[in-house]
Model the fold of this input.
Amino acid sequence: MMKLEAIIQPSRFESVKDALREAGIEGMTVTEVRGHGRQKGHTEVYRGREYTVDLLPKIKLEMVLSDKAVNLVVDTILKTAKTGKIGDGKIFLTRVDDAIRIRNEERGESAL
Amino acid sequence: MAGPATPLSVLVAQCEDERARIRKNFEHGSSAKATLLALCELADRSLQQVFKDALKLHDSSTEGLGLLALGGYGRRMLFPFSDLDILFLFANDKSEEEFRPLISEFSRTMWDLGFRVSSAGRTIDECKRIEEDNAEFHLALLDRRFLDGDAALFEKLDQKILPPSERQARPFLFAQLHRLTKERLGRYGDTIFHLEPNVKEAPGGLRDYQAAYWLRQIMGDRKDLRGSSAAEEQLAADAVEFVSSIRCFLHYSNARNDNALTYELQAGAAEKSLGMRGGAQRSAAEWMRIYFRHARTLNRQLLRYMDQKMAVPASLRERFFSAARSVTKTAPPMTGDFAVRGGQIEVLNQQALSDRTVMYSMFVEAARTGTPLSREAERSISYVMTHSELPVLNQAIQWETLKEILAGDFPGVALRPMHRLGLLMEILPEFRAIDSLVVRDFYHRYTVDEHSLRTIEHLQELADPPDERGVSFAPLWKTLNRRDLLIFSLLLHDTGKGVPTDNHVQGSLESLDTAARRLGLSAEEEAEVHFLIEQHLAMSATVQRRDIFDPSIVSGFAESVGTLERLQRLTLLTYADIHAVNPEALTPWKAEMLWQLFVATSNHFSRTLDRNRLHASDEKSMLEQVLAVAKNAKQSDVERFLEGFPRRYLAVHSAAEVARHFALYQKLSAAPLQTELTPERHGFSLTLLTADRPALFSTISGVLAAWGMNIIKADAFANAAGVVLDTFHFVDLHRTLELNPTESERFVKSLHDVLQNKAALEPLLQSRDTASRARPPKVAIQTRLSFDDSASAHSTLLEVIVQDRPGLLYDMGSALARLACNIEVALIDTEGQKAIDVFYLTSQGSKLTAQKQDLLREVLQGTLG
Done:
């Protein structure tokens, strides 16, 4: 099993979610986050006040996937979240030792 | 002691059979009241049997031990899976020690019989003391009922011990009950209108009834207690029966003490016509409306009792702030029919309420000042509203009156009681479609009407934002023109959810159509509200689904919105709409995204103003509208007048206003200066047409300053033929024009004289009152000047942020004129004590050179400080 964390543009979230659903991937945790990598923020001035957006709004998706689903999900996110501009985000994958469904204590991939 | 104890297995079987019988009776139509009583009698019988058996087993007498029922069980309202609240009353410490094994045995057996015993033990001496950290116990003790044991001991407690200590503890109990109730109501957002309400704890639930019942007991001997009428008592009894039926149904359905009326169980209850006395089966939504009606009765009854008396004498701090509030408010109105007393609007003349204009005046006052109607005032109105046989005068509300309510600083303070009393639905029947309407939705927490009212209350809060999310949006609310249109849009924006249509926005627009026609909105007003309703999801969708940092997205969004004024309204509407979905819906993240889109779009408007010029022949629809108003006007003349104005001119002026401007334009051939002075809600507006000339803008500003007028907003536009159309909105600081109507003529004459060089401006300026200039500002604004050469093809944009003061615009305009800078377009605005001015400047027909910009910066900084 792998844990996937994807940081994507908020504007791509709906498309990514729909594409994942179409691909048969249902479960995910979504968090509104702020941050920046190479895409730096910018400053807007409104009525004499500077609004510096140095941490840009992003969406973080978290999923734990069976090994065989990982490539499908990564490809789907790449296809739908990519705009080609700086700030499209990143995908991180880490190995997961176990998963437990609290309701019935199932373990491993069957708990996903 | 004789005879063996009853075997446990026999008792268990008896209890199970009896519980099954009670449930069956309930499911076959037995009332909730009868069900609760039957459950209570079963508990009483079982308890007495178990207690008797325990006494036998321990070879003990009842002397020194009494068993009392408390709380709901004490009141004989025991729900199927509720706890059995029992007090073990001991004569003294010794008896407590002696009976401990018996009580353990007793409690275990009761649990084995399926009763969830929740017990407390006190000696009779302990009952004398008020436990300040355990108000709940003392409140439950108000419902005490003798069950078994030492009757004399109970009598001593009930007749001798508790009455004096309870009398003494009344203020404490009252205050604690207030506190506990307020905390509980607050946990549920102080509203009954939850999509999946908890019928025990939420406002309108059985705890409201219980709290009202206790308040009544605590205040029992007060002489000034305003009692309920027989009709109100009956309504409350019906409500208790209805909500109790639901709670029984929930307990039986969930097989536990779970009181959440979920969507699934709403459907089940509606299917069984639960709580209904016959009649046709209703849909879940219709059945929920009946639930909310009963919940409203229980909640209103509780709130009335909570209003009856101050919990404790006000502290010095509270009295001080109360006094400070009363002196800072404007004098309370005394129409003879109602008055402000103790911070609430009270009815003085009940009979006057038959005249709806009196009623509406009370709500205008509430919306204007934020003073709520007292519960008794609401009760009086409710009486009139529910007695159709009483004569009604002036029932139809005028749009002008409704506008006053909607445009107030506190529209929610008026609209919520208007809805509670049915008055809102009387004047806006379209709102009836969403009254108490449950629409199943994963995100929304409240019924549709509650959501709509909350949107308005969230805006109202922006006067003093309760948290960080609202801080940026607060100035938008405070400086917004025509709030009435925004609030009207919010009232109607979801009414389409109550009509059968695939697209609720379309349904809401149909509601607007009928409401606008009935109330007599102007075409421009209706168009504005139409836009806001039609686009009420657009900004949220843009924030969530588009890259708001992409200039092309911002530009496209700006184009769809049209004007800065609309953008402000749409931003506030979106802020309020998301906020009212549920308390967590407007995350700081979303609020910031929304604000970023607003700022980017607002800046886009300022920076593109000079770029988008009108080509009159392309504006067919507007031309038709103007020609319809301006009778006998030739289309070619109107086209010549409009040609070359910035597009904003059409966006911020109605066809009627354009026609009026055109009429002034036509008179220019007879007199080269045309003016129109119009009183407005908070001041005056001055429209002026003339041929462009150097220093025109600063000269007009100078005359206004000399007369003590403070310019709040201004637009300066020029068409292709060099005709300047300036509009100034100003406040008459010394009320010169307001108090002396003849001064208006003198003021206009003075303006004409100066502009036509018949009088000099300087002597006028020297004589102006400098008192306001000397007044220190409340907030220090740092001066900021910025130039932008990229915003326009042929002008340089100058944005000035500076401390506002009378005469400021004249000083700036004069500095620009001295340096031969021509104002192509100007947008003047203020926000509190901050002036925000945007000028599109040219010098000798071109953009300002870098040297000119440096010089202008230096001169302006010297002038402005």
